[in-house]
Structures are given as C-alpha cells and as structure tokens.
Amino acid sequence: MNAGEVRPVKIWAASSGLAACRFKINTISYAVYAGAEQKPFCLHRAIIAQNSEYFDNIFSSPDEKNTSAIYLKEITSYSFNIIATWLYGRTNQLSLLFCSRIRTVALYKSANFLGIHKLKGDILEMIKRLLDRELKEAHKEPMEKEHYILMEEICAYSQPSDRPLLKECLILALESSSLEPTSALEFYRDREPSEILLAILEELLQAQGTSRSEDLFSENESDA
C-alpha cells in the first residue's frame, strides 16, 4: 500500500449473498468516516440515500457535487459498522446488542440521528422479542430496573411515530423490572422524563383508572 492511500474496509454486498467484499475508497461513490478515530467505510450512495434521511439530504443539496467524503464524529465506529452491515441486509447482529444497554442505546441514537427509521423499528422489535422471551422463562429473576432504564434512554431519542412500538416494549420492560407505572413515575420527582416516556406512562395509568403524573409534577413545581 502506498503512503497516504486509505486502507480498504470490508462491506457487505447484498448482490453476492452477503459475501464480504473489499473495495478501495476511490472506486465507489462515497467514503464515510465514523467515530473519533475516523474509521473509513465504503458505501454505495444508492444504498445509504434510500434508507437514511440524513444522507438523502446531503445528496439532495446543491453542494452535493463537492462532497467527496462524509464525517460522522457523533457516531462511534462500532455503531456505524452495525448500521453499514444492516444497510446491506445483514440484521443478525442486532440481537447481540441486548447484552449491552450502552451499545443498544448508542445504536438507536445513531439511527435516530441519521433518520434510519426502519432500523429503529428493527431495534425495538428486537428488544420486544427478547423481553417477551425472558418473561416466558419462569426461572429468570427480575432485572432490578435494568430493562426499564434501557427503555427510558431509548425514549429520549425517539419520535412520535415510534410510540406504538415503544409502548409495547415499555410494558414488557416494566413487567420484567417488577415495576408499575406509578412506581416508575416516582423516579422523576427530581428530574423530568422525556415527553414520549411521560405520555406512555400516563396512558398506562389511565388504562388502570388512575392518573398521577400531573399531581407528581405539580408537587415538584411547588417544592421549587
């Protein structure tokens, strides 16, 4: 390799049955550099533009012809590697994230930043499926709020269109953590939850015939 030449990176080619192929950056449309270390990824414009609002906006701008590379310091190279493989049709890595709350939230946050709504839905479906499976295993011990905290953080990077799946996941997370909506709201006496999380908890309370969120936050205001 010559000095200054960018090392080829592995991508997944959908046309070759997800076989790993190597490309030099100067032979494909765009190079995307992710993370603090600016790890390069070689991606086809058509693939990323049709799945990501962020990339589509870049390619639709008048300055697109002057864009030779895209830099994403906000997204770790670990998260973007999963995003890249997902874009090319490989989804089996998502279930591996569940063992790490931090990585699951980081990937979801990155998908929200890039406007990849289908990936966000896939992550929520994965969470829902794994939570449901854990609840059906009678020997499993309650997670001591771990799954609820996961959904709390996920809600912070969600949009109103995500709410139906968020609600399903949150119901399972509350059950898995042995929490009731009223108990969950007690966590927010000193801090406010995201609007989507609060709305879902309020909806669950109303379904139970109770409503405490307004009283809770009015108490907070009076204490202030």
Task: Describe this structure as you would to a colleague.
Helices cover 50% and strands 11% of the residues. The chain is built from ten helices and five strands. The strands form two sheets. The protein has a three-stranded mixed sheet with strand order 4-3-5. The protein has a two-stranded antiparallel ribbon with strand order 1-2. Strand 1 (9-13) and strand 2 form a beta hairpin. Helix 4 runs antiparallel to helix 5 (117-136) and helix 6 (146-155) runs antiparallel to helix 7. Residues 1-28 and 213-222 have low confidence and may be disordered.
Number of strands: 5
The structural class is: mainly alpha
The rough form would be described as: elongated
The main sheet orders its strands as 4-3-5
Tell me the count of domains: 2
Give unreliable regions as ranges.
1-28, 213-222
Report the average pLDDT across residues.
79
* Largest β sheet strand count, sense and barrel closure: 3 strands, mixed
Proportion of residues in extended strands: 5-15%
Helix content: 40-55%
- Rounded to the nearest angstrom, the radius of gyration is 21 Å
**Secondary-structure element sequence?**
EEEEHHEHHHHHHHH
Number of helices: 10
Determine the N-to-C terminus distance: 64 Å
Short description:
The protein has about 220 residues and is mainly α. The protein contains ten helices and five strands. The protein has a three-stranded mixed sheet. The protein has a two-stranded antiparallel sheet with strand order 1-2.
